[in-house]
Amino acid sequence: MAAELLACDWGTTNLRAWTLDGEGAVIAQRDFPLGVSRLASGEAARRFEAEVRPALGAHALPAILCGMIGSNIGWTTAAYVDCPAGLADLAGRLTVAAEGVRIVPGLRCDGIAGAPDVMRGEETQILGWLAQHPERRTGRHLVCHPGTHAKWVLIEDGRIIRFVTAMTGELFAVLGEHSLLKSDAPADDDAAFDEGVAAAGAGDALAARLFSARARVVGGQAEAASTPSYLSGLLIGAEVAAVPVLLGAAPSQVALLGDPALCTRYARAISRTGVEAEIFDGEAAAIAGLWALYAG
Amino acid sequence: MAAELLACDWGTTNLRAWTLDGEGAVIAQRDFPLGVSRLASGEAARRFEAEVRPALGAHALPAILCGMIGSNIGWTTAAYVDCPAGLADLAGRLTVAAEGVRIVPGLRCDGIAGAPDVMRGEETQILGWLAQHPERRTGRHLVCHPGTHAKWVLIEDGRIIRFVTAMTGELFAVLGEHSLLKSDAPADDDAAFDEGVAAAGAGDALAARLFSARARVVGGQAEAASTPSYLSGLLIGAEVAAVPVLLGAAPSQVALLGDPALCTRYARAISRTGVEAEIFDGEAAAIAGLWALYAG
User: Fold this and answer.
1) Chain B residues lying within 8 Å of A118, measured CB to CB
2) How many CB pairs under 8 A join A and B?
3) What does the pLDDT look like over A162-181, one tens digit per residue?
């Protein structure tokens, strides 16, 4: 079948592009090191036409883009849509960046302490996940999208009601690189991860619980090489214990959507709290979401 | 009155030394950039004799040292004493580093998730504070020693029962230097500090609450220059809300002991929780503690 759409998930560090056929199935896929943080002002449009379209043989196709490309450091600003919002709300608010090129708006809701909370890109994956699973378009569902800035998203009857962002991935990175807990060891020790989850308690007093990552090594109870795994368990454990409460959700089930390896770690932590965790592929959801927003 | 004791608070980054008279009053004081993190193995003894003693005219005086100089990267290891412990317990366990030079042991107690918690240096300030305030040697008291690694210490009838370390100062430093929240602005905006304290809630879900520091700026509600103050309030607010609970203390009063400027920030956050905060000078307490441990 001929290509009908050029679909792009264009984030801070990377651009992933697919050509899709008339049923939304992938024909070709390419990655580009063109994340918006690497682009000068005005560069996005030029490189999209000069590099992305030719590489996928997509010169004349309509294009739809989601992610940070719609932010004020991207191609053009696609204004946020306020929650609650569903597929039709976002499909009706696409921003035209150039002829044949539309950008998905981000989502905004009331956040902590009167500040807004925002997302750009995850909303497309969530809408795609709903498109992939018609049975989830009714009732209440809790989705977690782990990452540098994890998103916990409450869905009711197919619309995103509200969400909370947690900087867990960024905390893990800065503590692992720059603090007393820094280490070059991989975070691949499941037993230490589980110890970290247990040490997270109810997700309170994190600054104190973090010190246990140091104390267990100084006290001779653990090898220093297990610190990244323990730290990962502690931070993810604190997030899964406390963030759903903050969101006002008391789930019996969490749908994890995103990077499969990271989702597996979250599922491990969530399952220890007695909550069921299901894992869904973020890339497939992004493609489904871009197609659904295009097909409207 | 003639000098009777050379008293030193010898920490990770700095060495502060005093000569004290026969009543424990300061005769002279000098600082040295000889923190243990800057010393090669074996260097402490040599530089103490070659620089510290001559600078204070203290060639023949008995010396007592507290702090990280008693750790395994210091002069010689002064083994930890387990809690509960009071002045007599520590005074009876001084470690002889060289002729006329004794080191105060650190304190250890059971910490989070089976790991030990430890301190080196703060115990001397706390025992000194008790020596300065005879009326505090009975009953139950909660002391907070803010810093890179803040210590919350529960005292009963003059003995340190247990304590918890919180890495709040380190979190503030690594987030302010290396994360999305990095900023060169000073943390001197009281209104933003108070907003941060309010956003800390009960000290749960810190990774989510931290995102509000970004969102309030992106959302146009605050200037980026207020981020360090907000972050300081958020982290200290989360600590003062949750760590006393973790320690099993529900105080009506907290004694803050340490750097006066930092204690003032903590007092501001604590007072918003309805708890009374008193501030005591950490340096005076360290001197009183070293003298009390010497005088036994």
Assistant:
1) 215, 218-219
2) 176
3) 999 999 999 999 999 999 99
